[in-house]
Amino acid sequence: MDPSDLAELRTMYVFSPADGETWGLTFEGFRSHLLARNPNEFLRLDEGRTGPVRRASLHFGITLDDEVLEGFAALTPEGVAIRDCTAHAAANFAVWLRDAVVPQDKAITFNTDWGIEGQIPDSPVPDVTRPRLVAAFLAHPETLGLD
Question: Is 90:102 a contact under the CB 8 Å cutoff?
């Protein structure tokens, strides 16, 4: 696949603690970090009382590079996902998540819709600069044979 095509691919990116770890994520804590970044972001708590999945989640909007993206945070399993996202936007989100939400001594792993469907294990989010993080996210489809 052409590198420019790869950069435009959109999928859901899922960020979670490393196996056996926790970030101590709470909806109120996530909400406060998101609103501190931008007090006009969208937030909606789904208490999970209806439908086939009965776990609570916090749905949110986040503005990255003048584009509003949607995602959700869950406590069980613990993690945060951003939907319909390019590797560049996912890197911007991961940097914010690392700097504002996740405790400094905790690791972040990631996967995508494609990786989850293919039962590929989560990968560590490298502690690198934003451009190198974009490159790591762009390499993910290649590991799945999507290139």
Answer: no
Contacts of 91 (CB under 8 A, 6+ apart): 130, 133, 134, 137
pTM of this structure: 0.89
Q: What is the pLDDT along the chain (147 residues), one digit of tens a residue?
A: 555 667 788 999 999 999 999 999 999 999 999 999 999 999 999 876 655 555 789 999 999 988 999 999 999 999 999 999 999 999 999 999 999 999 999 999 999 998 999 888 999 999 999 999 999 998 877 666 655
The closest alpha carbon to 33, from 24, 142, 50, belongs to 24
